[in-house]
Amino acid sequence: MNYKRILELMVKHLDEGIIVVDSNLKILYFNEPSTNITGFDSKKAIDKSIFQVFPNIDENNSIFLNVINTGKPIIEYVQEYKNCKGKNVTIVTSIIPIMGGNKVTGAIEIFKDITKVMELSNKVLVLQKALYNNYNEENKFLANGTQYSLGDIVGDSPPMKQLKEKICKVSFSNSPVFVFGETGTGKELVVQSIHNLSSRRDKLFIAQNCGALPENLLESILFGTVQGSFTGAKDKQGLFELADGGTLFLDELNAMSLGLQAKLLRVIEDGVVRRVGSTKTKIVDVRIITASNINPEKLVEEGKLREDLYYRLNVIYFHIPPLRERKEDIPILVDHFIKYYNKKMKMFVKGVDGEVMNYFHKNYWPGNVRELQNTIESAMNFVEGKYITMEDLQEHSLCFKNRSKKRFEKYIEKEEVGLKEAVEEYEKQIIKAALKESEQNCTKAARALKVPKQTLHGKIKRYGL
Fold first, then answer.
1. Which one, of 77, 93, 76, 104, lies nearest residue 18 by Cα?
2. DSSP 359-383
3. What crossing angle do the helices spanning 115-133 and 215-223 adopt, rounded to 10°?
């Protein structure tokens, strides 16, 4: 077997730049990705000094020179410099000495361009800072970062009464909680209610959507950073440290990579956190609450959720019932939302007429309570009398629902199916209709369905649409 040929093929197809120098820092090897990053022609780089390829690097502070002089490798060092074409570039680099007996005969540098990642990271850091500065805005958040308490959970149906009783029972526990509920059922209301009834209510409640960020940025935000771990990074607390003594809510946990799930498991089991780029650990006292809009057992079966992490998080389990399973709460919810928007919009609407209420009871509500709330808000913008009528509901919403309803009814008539299959088929038809209405624009479709774009992408992939 020609191992030299195999090595050449591996190096040829790597995205990383590779540079080999001798002990005098003269370049012996310079691959194509190095050209893309440095802007220097690979053919012209051979036999040049490393400082000719990197003209803006200070020779006195050169990490290449440091490795040659000390014989010690430098691993995953983040460096920002201006390449030979004047472009600002950020790289993460490792330089390893080449030894000939006890003497350093050269060095190998393996580096990767992370400029775009760092730009995104800096934007996230700015947004994160703005988020925590806004926690104390009047009429928006309480001092502990929450917006809701048990009284904000509306409903007197048996399932909702049981849910409220369970919240009261488990609030003073420090055990992890797993919340499962479809999109729009009110998972955050439940989670914040648990925090505000607990002994941790005077400490911060911090929520993070795991599906909203790339893995490397999510890791930095969760665990914190040390200065130099990447360009622009400073000694900064992560969410675990910020939530010390309080509650950390991780939504859409299934969007987290399995590798990051393993790190999360270690923090939960050991109670210690280590910032990205640091060797030091810190003990934290945080109650973890996680949530998903997909059944956790299904996530484990599909390999999207680590089984050991699931059992560690699922000490206390909540299932929030969808609106279709508690339709007796619809009149209470309708009254609640009308009062809310009366106050917000300075209106005096008394309620909905009988036809609208009948329609609400017959509707399937795939978007659950959030969809009902948005429907009421929409109608409040059109209503002219004291009661909301069918004419006040936007026509495109009604047509959309009616088309989906007819397709669903035909499907049920055609073949005998279980509840799960029927629900999935109904959801599938609704998504297809929304995509058609939006001309396959996922952003518009997600807005029409009142769901996050990430959630819609997941469902599109799941149903093969």
1. 93
2. HHHH---TTHHHHHHHHHHHHHTT-
3. 40
Taking the C-alpha atoms of residue 146 and residue 142, their distance in angstroms, rounded to an integer, is 5
Say how far apart CA 171 and CA 193 lie, in whole Å: 8
Q: What is the pLDDT of residues 349-386, one digit of tens each?
A: 999 999 899 989 988 888 899 999 999 998 998 888 89
CA distance 313 to 301: 16
**Helix locations, 224-295, DSSP H:** 239-242, 258-270
Hey, how many other C-beta atoms are within 10 angstroms of the C-beta on 362?
Answer: 10
The encoded tokens of residue 462 equal 């799941």
First to last CA, the chain: 46
Alpha-carbon distance 267 to 233, whole Å? 22
Single out the residue of 282, 293, 287, 251 nearest to residue 268, CA to CA: 287
Q: Does the global pTM surpass 0.70?
A: no
The alpha carbons of the chain give a radius of gyration, in whole angstroms, of 28
Contact 79, 109 (CB under 8 A): no
**Residue carrying the six token digits 């914190």:** 224
Are the C-beta atoms of 140 and 249 separated by less than 8 Å? no
323 within 8 A of 181, measured Cβ to Cβ: no
- For residue 147, give the 3-state DSSP assignment: coil
> Count of CB atoms within 10 A of residue 430's CB?
23
* Distance (Å, whole) CA 251 – CA 120: 21
Q: Dump pLDDT digits (tens) for 124-183.
A: 545 554 554 544 444 456 788 898 999 899 999 999 999 999 998 888 888 999 999 999
Residue 465 neighbours by CB under 8 Å, 6+ apart? 428, 431, 432, 435, 459
Both tokens of 104, joined, read: 């350093």
Return the SS3 of 312. Answer: helix
